[in-house]
Amino acid sequence: MPQDLDALIVGAGPAGLALGIALADGGFSATVLDAQPREALAAPDEDGRDIALTHASVATLRALGLWQRLRPEEIGCIREARVIDGDRQDCALSFSPRGHDTEVLGWIVPNHALRRASFAAAMERPALRLLDRAQVLRVATEPGHVQLDVQASPGLPQQLQGRLFVAADSRFSWSRKQLGIAADIHDFGRVMIVCRMQHELPHHDVAYECFGYERTLAVLPAVGNVSSVVVTADTAAAERLMQLSESEFAALVERQFRSRLGRMQLLGKRFPYPLVAAYARRFVGQRSALIGDAAVGMHPVTAHGYNLGLQSIASLVHALCEARAAQRDIGAAEVLAGYERAHRRDAAPIYHGTNAVARLYASTGAPQRLVRQLLLRGAQHLPPLKAAITARLTGRGGLQLPGAAA
Ligand SMILES: Cc1cc2nc3c(=O)[nH]c(=O)nc-3n(C[C@H](O)[C@H](O)[C@H](O)COP(=O)(O)OP(=O)(O)OC[C@H]3O[C@@H](n4cnc5c(N)ncnc54)[C@H](O)[C@@H]3O)c2cc1C
């Protein structure tokens, strides 16, 4: 028999689970469906991604009880960020939290740890139900309700009914297509290789972004003498980098990094991610909304994908809580329009700005090199711009549930 739920969420990734938890804590009932088996969701495999998190994101994760579930050895801290341009040794642009009422620019946490913590916290909420191994066969968003036909594990419901449908099933979202929502997809033709490396010298919690001419290298501080290393190159070059032996790869990174951290050594596997960005033309449809990467799948160079995903959740939950307080239908078009406006305002500048940075730093022509130098030097000597970027990282905010202490 169909059950009448507040929200039906497809995708138990970090965004879908965080939304489910926020809704359960806000007094709504929700079911989250995922194609993966429960065991894989409970103990996700390492995927090489380390997620840099802003102050507002950490405030949201704390409010949802996820942050407290991370182990101390999983939480790295960024106290300064330096940008290096081309082959230069010195730093062209730097950020520190000085003058911003904190000593920390942001934190860095492995993606699989975030997923594990999200799953564990979700399983503690009685108002939140998980359907694993679930394949959604049909999404019907009607004026009065939403109905899903589902193929799930035996014994689990095959039909679900609710007031609101939410797509949280990645940047290649199947649900988004079912809702008839188009997305602008941009394939950068480049690949990001991520891995962890151990090094001789301490990193002092400094993050580096080295915009080389052949490839880009980011070195982000994890716990101890370990860093998360991100190498971005065009597809053919990335294939060659993946074929290098561990020691050849480590030597190449160490050379490009000018041995700032002494000898470097690979820890575990290298993971390649083809770089494809996605931006949905609409974030809402009839009784439906897109969140996380299903709404906006960012190029990772500015480390904002999940941060923006958490912002989408805060905006959607805010709209739904306001609707309920006013005794309105949470799936009503005017309610969802409020979410659409708020998230587009947050997402548009960061999405388009990130793509512009990614394109500029992927080009190697002489004019682009000059523009890069001018931009970085200009930004370094433009205190209001640096202060605005730092404020974005360290600014307070995040999810507010009614009745929760600020
Ligand atoms: C290399 C790399 C580095 C990154 N670094 C950062 C960073 O530093 N900071 C940051 O903020 N962000 C970063 N990101 C982005 C971040 O990882 C994503 O924004 C985040 O994982 C998106 O979460 P999500 O839940 O929306 O989607 P996903 O993590 O893609 O999860 C989607 C879920 O939906 C499920 N699913 C998919 N299709 C279906 C279906 N048809 N039916 C049912 N279930 C389905 C999947 O099994 C999965 O569980 C990075 C990304 C990459 C690739």
Describe this structure in words.
- This protein has twelve helices and 19 strands.
- Helix 1 runs parallel beside helix 4, helix 1 (14-25) packs parallel to helix 9 and helix 9 (305-325) runs antiparallel to helix 10.
- It has one domain (4-185, 277-394): FAD/NAD(P)-binding domain.
- It is an alpha+beta fold and 406 residues long.
- The chain is globular and about 60 Å long.
- The strands form three sheets. Strands 1, 2, 8, 9, 10, 11, 17 and 18 form an eight-stranded mixed β-sheet that branches. It has an eight-stranded mixed β-sheet with strand order 6-5-13-14-15-12-16-19.
- 36% of the residues lie in helices and 30% in strands.
- Flavin-adenine dinucleotide (FAD) is lined by residues 10-16, 33-36, 49, 51-52, 111, 136, 168-170, 174, 192, 194, 273, 292-293, 300, 303-307, 309.
List the helices and strands and how they pair.
Blueprint: E1 4-10, H1 14-25, E2 30-33, H2 38-42, E3 50-53, H3 55-63, E4 76-78, E5 80-85, E6 93-95, E7 106-110, H4 111-123, E8 128-131, E9 135-141, E10 146-151, E11 159-167, H5 174-178, E12 183-199, E13 206-211, E14 216-221, E15 226-234, H6 235-243, H7 246-256, E16 264-280, E17 284-285, E18 288-290, H8 292-295, E19 296-297, H9 305-325, H10 333-362, H11 366-380, H12 383-394
Parallel strand pairs: 1-2, 1-11, 2-8, 5-13, 11-18
Antiparallel strand pairs: 3-7, 4-7, 5-6, 9-10, 10-11, 12-15, 12-16, 13-14, 14-15, 16-19, 17-18
Helix pairs in contact: 1-4, 1-9, 9-10
Bound molecules: flavin-adenine dinucleotide.
Largest sheet at a glance?
8 strands, mixed
**How many E-type strands?**
19
Query: What bound compounds does this protein have?
Result: flavin-adenine dinucleotide
CATH superfamily, called what?
FAD/NAD(P)-binding domain
CATH hierarchy, class: Alpha Beta
Structural class, from helix and strand content? alpha+beta
- How large, in whole angstroms, is the Cα Rg? 22 Å
Average pLDDT value? 90
Query: Which CATH architecture is right?
Result: 3-Layer(bba) Sandwich
Uncertain runs: none
Number of helices: 12
Distance between the termini: 40 Å
**Fraction in helix:** 25-40%
What does the overall shape look like?
globular
**Total number of distinct structural domains:** 1
Kindly estimate the percentage of residues that lie in beta strands according to DSSP.
25-35%
